[in-house]
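Note to self: keep these together.
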Amino acid sequence: MRSKVTVVLLFLNVVLFFYIFRFEEKWRAERATLEARRRVLPAEIASLESFTRTTSDGATVKLEKKGDAWWLTAPYEWPANPNAVSRLHNELQFLEHETSFLVADLPKSGQTLADYGLAEPALTVDLTAAGKSFRLLIGADTRTGNRLYLLSPDTERIHVVSRSLAESVGMALADLRTDTLFTIPVFEVRSLNIQTGPPSNLKVRLRRDNASRWGFETPILARANKANVEVTINALNALTAKSFLDRSEADRTGLDSPSLRVTFEGNARRETLLLGSAATPGEYYARFEDKNVVFTTAVPAHLLEVLRASQDELRDRHVLDFDPATVTSLNLRAPNQPALSLQKLETAPASGGPAVAAPAPGAWQLITRADGQAPVTTAADPDVIRDLLGRLERLSVVKFLSDAPSAADVEKYGFTEPEREITLGLTTGGGLDGRAPSTLVLQVGVDPGTTGTAFARLTNPPFVYEILPDIIEDTPVLARHFRHRLLRKLPEGALLTTVSLVDLTTGTPVFAQKIKEGEQTWTATLAATPEATRPALAAILAQLTELRAAAFTADAFSPDHADTPEGNRPWRYRLDYSVTFNGGPEIPASLLLTERLGGMTLVAGTADFGGVVFTVTQPLLDALFALTYTATQDPGPVEPAAASPAPAAPKN
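Structure:
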């Protein structure tokens, strides 16, 4: 029974859907036929190719499609406003009449085309679409005022259509043209050419390569600043036409000898803008090279300055162009000093250098050479080298001095004996494809008669730049500056067992502590240490476990005094400690210390690690200062003031 009901319902659904489909198909056909009857223009108008509007006084405006873009070709040639063209095209394509009647029936009612404003129409519209031509005559308004009369292209019928047609077809010329000047967007621009007017007539050409890097091709071969170039292109693309001139006014524009010529080259097209004399302050006469129409445009003062000085303003101000990750070697030279070499390692060194944990691949080593001796290698500090490479990468030009220096310039800027010569070995940049190893050689010179200024040049190309002199201080030709700051890191199984601080002027201990018998950590000992000295002891233990120098101040250690930038200073304290390895015997060691020489300076020295003198890290400095200041100079807590006697009671 249920299956029969299901079959019946299924059959009824099929019949219902078939009926709806047939009815809707007929309804759609009738609706399409009705719409086709109401449409004024045929379907070919969807492929509109040109539009010409002529007013009753003979003024003509013409739009033509060129490729994928619309252009205004009369009364002058100019890119059309795509939004305005789209509105106009839609109005024509979907134009429908409210009603219509035959022209042949007009005599029956004693009327003529003139009664509908069609004998001398207000607007005549000529259209070209799909190779066919159509003409529309737009006449007078209807009595209600929101409709108007239109003569069909075959001149057989008069249509009553919405007044919106006249508003779209009759758009002002200013609405039909685009305001912007250039039509090539920044991402399409392949080259930018700038030529100034007399007397310099300087021609500058910049081109973008396949990697989207900008460079100068004329008057020099040099790198360009990508951001500045593209900002300039965007600023030029933002220029707009303010007003258009009659041809009779062209004599006062100065465009016969333009002050600037700016050319964009894109994909198989180019546009050249000529700037003439000033029309008003900040506004200039202009035209495009391949067009006769003259207009005015407002050019920002800053943009004009960049264009007129584009050789400097658009140039890359980085002295060096390299990726720090590709540097494999770094050589430093200075007058009257031995050369210094730094080399990047792909694997950890087999031996030599301080007792530090094996460096990861890519670590650096320092190579020093003395006359008559074999080169000596020492582990270099990767953080110091990374910081130096970053400073070199950011080294910027203050001023471009010369692109073709003479011999006198080379001597004047101090390059006959440069203050620094820095050679970078790179894994890339050489060969025809730019992937072979290469070198960059930077020379930094100074002029003894000029303070606060340094000069830089590369050996190729030999451009001369003015730079800040900071780079000389950032590149000391001192082996100790690049030495690895990590002096020692105790391995697992090593244990500090005693720590004491002795005042060398009196020979008395300032502080002493020993780990509790049988303990393998300092946890219990620290818990029993007085609260005043507990943080300092914990910090000293941590710093001795991983002993690190903030900076090295001397090349050799002397037990008599410390060599500091301020001169020789006496050793004031000795930090003694002992270490045991895997339960073995205690090994004593010590650090000699100066007094605190400044807010962040305390010098230490030891005969260990080949004999070193260095400034300690801030945590160790703070911990030592807490112990020495408290023991020798801290006056302790302020005693409370004595209570004042109560005032006597007043007498009656």
